């Protein structure tokens, strides 16, 4: 199955006509547009034609229109131009305002550039974030109040995380009579909103090519006729001295092909069609993910962006799930997608923390087609089923599989012992932050004990029966620990070394703790999963298996088992043939592997989780554990039917 890209606000693939235009320029019209000979003139013609087309599409017959490397460069140029003008006005003693006002939900390129150039030019202007309302739209009353003192105002046409469309007419009205210069970041507007720049008071409008099917490293900057301008790049005087450096002709030609398609019509979907797609996707999300909330009102948003949160699920979990189903989405904005921080955009809208820290952005471009949307909706339905089967949705009706389950939050571990036969369960070191998740996982089980390794000398029975299984409490000078039959010991914050010392000193424990028993700590500081009294880290052991070497490895190790360590719901959404042992089930599975060792190749999405699993086994003295480098993302899903040597 092909990947479905629903992350177009981050970047887009290349329009086929744009690819052809870039190739043609590289093959036939490769000249330098500054050269005066025929080859150069042919290149110059391309440049002029693209610029003329851009002026028509942007509604900018007047003013400057230069090609840049992207919006970040356009933003720098606009900021530098505005700040230099403010400095000059100040030097002349003319009123220039003292505030640099930017929308609280701007792309980071804007406030970062403002702060950078403000400091570099020694202007000491005050940066002020213009608040937005609960819908993500600028607070126009606040804008009116700031307008008289504003030197430079930066707002965006449409937001990259939420798709919220700004009320540019309202902002222009609020700025009436203000000396402020005005930049509007139009990156997410191109091809999605009508633009008639020269009819507005907008002074600067940066654009980015790669957000609309042109290559990365392409962009444009419009500067209103008469607006102050200072070049960012000096040199050979290209672009009429506005932006030196030999022009990126393949990129400009490709951008030209996109602009030509916009002008001609027929290539991109209409607003109404895109609204229809959004309804379809929203319905699919509502059906698959009960309780889903949309973080931006559709009536104020681009129909190509859906930002949502699901109670009880983190954005990382949702991203991993969608990724496993081969649907690419992003958490918050792409730039901050790696860090699971709350979204500053949603924070600025005043959304509750759980929504801003678990938000997922799903976005597509105007090239989207009905068949892909239908396929995406089917994948979303499959994601919902996978979550339901894993017991992570309110509507889950089948209890999760029995056994031992580890949950980790904020560096601490909670352990669930689930006895499938008797449907009884015990929780060890429950963390309040995990209460909803624990409650969801215990559905269909009767909790018989909530135990803590932190309590000094807890009252109550020393032995807890869970069907055929037994949990036994041991209290010693070193702390409280619980033994699950003779396989696992829940050892709290005790380090294995102090546990070993305790064993020596305490005859009772020495008898009680069978050799090979896995120690399941309460904190990552002791071990990320489980460990043993004898565990030790061997340095210089290479447990990475390169994707290119996998086939050879499997041929050499016919008994090797591929183990998908992604979450159960990711595994279900991915339809992989490999066995699934999520990290939270590692401690449950390890005794079986230790009893009958076979070569194990762990894999996950990107190779981070699998390397931790392989390391855990190696530390336990298991010599045959490897991690597939780069994971499914680089190697594809390893498909081979392997039996679980349990
Ligand atoms: N502004 C907005 C609204 C964006 O979405 C982005 C890209 O994420 C940028 C600016 C930066 O654009 P570029 O990647 O072309 O520098």
What does this structure look like?
With 646 residues, the chain is α/β, with parallel strands linked by helices. The protein folds into four domains: 214 residues, Type I PLP-dependent aspartate aminotransferase-like (Major domain) (Aspartate Aminotransferase, domain 2, 3-Layer(aba) Sandwich); 120 residues, Aspartate Aminotransferase, domain 1 (Alpha-Beta Complex); 119 residues, 4-Layer Sandwich (Metallo-beta-lactamase, Chain A), CATH 3.60.15; 92 residues, Oxidized Rhodanese, domain 1 (3-Layer(aba) Sandwich), CATH 3.40.250. Helix content is 34%, strand content 19%. The protein is built from 20 helices and 26 strands. The strands form seven sheets. A five-stranded mixed β-sheet has the order 17-18-19-20-21, sandwiched between helices. The two termini are 31 Å apart. The site of pyridoxal-5'-phosphate (PLP) has 12 residues, from helix 3.
Helix tally? Answer: 20
Briefly note the structural class of the backbone.
alpha/beta
Q: Architecture of the largest domain, according to CATH?
A: 3-Layer(aba) Sandwich
Structure ligands: pyridoxal-5'-phosphate
- Compute the separation of the termini in Å: 31 Å
Number of extended strands = 26
Q: Give the strand order, joined by hyphens, for the main sheet.
A: 17-18-19-20-21
Rg estimate, integer Å? 30 Å
The main pleated sheet reads as:
5 strands, mixed
Question: How much helical structure, as a percent, in the residues?
Answer: 25-40%
Give the total of domains.
4
Low-confidence stretches: 641-646
Mean pLDDT: 92
Strand content: 15-25%
Q: What overall geometry do the principal axes of the alpha carbons give?
A: elongated
Under CATH at level 1, the class of the largest domain stands as: Alpha Beta
CATH homologous superfamily of the largest domain, by name? Type I PLP-dependent aspartate aminotransferase-like (Major domain)
> What is the fold named in CATH at topology level of the largest domain?
Aspartate Aminotransferase, domain 2
Domain Rhodanese: 556-643
Catalytic activity: (sulfur carrier)-H + L-cysteine = (sulfur carrier)-SH + L-alanine
GO molecular function: cysteine desulfurase activity; iron-sulfur cluster binding; metal ion binding
Enzyme class: transferase
């Amino acid at each position: 199955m092909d990947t479905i890209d629903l992350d177009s606000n981050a970047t887009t693939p290349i329009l086929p006509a744009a690819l052809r235009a870039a190739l043609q320029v590289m093959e036939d019209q490769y000249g330098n547009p500054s050269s005066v000979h025929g080859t150069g003139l042919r290149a110059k013609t391309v440049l002029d034609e693209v610029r003329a087309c851009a002026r028509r599409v942007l509604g900018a017959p007047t003013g400057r229109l230069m090609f840049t490397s992207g919006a970040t460069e356009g933003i720098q140029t606009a900021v530098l131009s505005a700040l230099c003008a403010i400095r000059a006005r100040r030097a002349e003693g003319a009123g220039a305002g003292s505030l640099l006002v930017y929308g609280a939900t701007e792309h980071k390129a804007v406030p970062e550039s403002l702060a950078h150039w403000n400091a570099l030019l020694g202007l000491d202007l005050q940066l002020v974030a213009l608040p937005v309302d609960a819908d993500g739209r600028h607070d126009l009353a606040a804008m009116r109040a700031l307008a008289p003192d504003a030197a430079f105002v930066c707002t965006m046409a449409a937001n990259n995380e939420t798709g919220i469309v700004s009320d540019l007419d309202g902002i222009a009205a609020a700025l009436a009579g203000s000396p402020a210069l005005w930049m509007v970041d139009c990156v997410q507007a191109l091809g999605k909103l009508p633009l008639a720049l020269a009819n507005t008071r907008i002074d600067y409008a940066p654009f980015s090519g790669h957000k609309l099917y042109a290559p990365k490293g392409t962009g444009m900057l419009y500067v209103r006729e008469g607006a102050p301008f200072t070049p960012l790049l000096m040199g050979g005087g290209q672009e009429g001295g506005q932006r030196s450096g030999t022009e990126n002709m393949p990129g400009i030609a490709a951008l030209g092909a996109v602009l030509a398609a916009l002008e001609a019509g027929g290539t991109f979907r209409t607003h109404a069609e895109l609204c229809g797609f959004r309804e379809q996707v929203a319905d699919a999300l509502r059906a698959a993910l009960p309780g889903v909330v949309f973080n931006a009102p559709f009536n104020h948003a681009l129909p190509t962006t859906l930002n949502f949160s699901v109670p009880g699920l983190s954005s990382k979990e949702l991203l991993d799930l969608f990724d496993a189903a081969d649907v690419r989405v992003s958490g918050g904005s792409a730039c901050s997608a790696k860090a699971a921080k709350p979204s500053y955009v949603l924070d600025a809208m005043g959304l509750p923390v759980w929504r801003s820290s678990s938000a997922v952005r799903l976005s597509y471009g105007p090239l989207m087609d009905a068949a892909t949307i239908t396929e995406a909706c089917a994948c979303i339905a499959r994601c919902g089923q996978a979550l339901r089967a894993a017991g992570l949705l309110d509507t889950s009706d089948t209890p999760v599989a029995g056994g031992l389950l580890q949950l980790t939050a904020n560096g601490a571990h909670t352990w669930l012992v689930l006895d499938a036969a008797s449907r009884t369960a015990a929780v060890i070191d429950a963390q309040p932050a995990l209460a909803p998740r624990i409650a969801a996982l215990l559905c269909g089980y009767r909790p018989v004990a909530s135990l803590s390794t932190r309590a000094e000398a807890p009252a109550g029975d020393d032995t807890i029966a869970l069907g055929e299984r037994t949990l036994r409490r041991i209290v010693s000078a070193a702390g409280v620990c619980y033994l699950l039959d003779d396989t696992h010991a829940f050892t709290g914050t005790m380090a294995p070394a102090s546990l070993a010392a305790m064993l020596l000193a305490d005859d009772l424990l020495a008898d009680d703790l069978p050799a090979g028993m896995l120690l399941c700590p309460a904190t990552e500081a002791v071990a990320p999963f489980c460990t043993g009294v004898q565990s030790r880290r061997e340095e210089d052991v290479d447990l990475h298996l390169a994707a290119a070497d996998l086939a050879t490895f499997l041929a050499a190790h016919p008994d090797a088992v591929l183990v998908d360590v992604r979450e159960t719901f990711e595994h279900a959404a991915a339809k992989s043939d490999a066995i699934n042992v999520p990290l939270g089930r590692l401690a449950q599975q390890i005794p079986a592997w230790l009893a009958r060792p076979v070569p194990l190749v762990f894999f996950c999405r990107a190779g981070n989780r699998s390397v931790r699993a392989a390391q855990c086994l190696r530390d336990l003295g298991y010599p045959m554990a490897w991690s597939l480098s780069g994971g499914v993302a680089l190697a594809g899903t390893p498909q081979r039917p392997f039996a679980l040597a349990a």
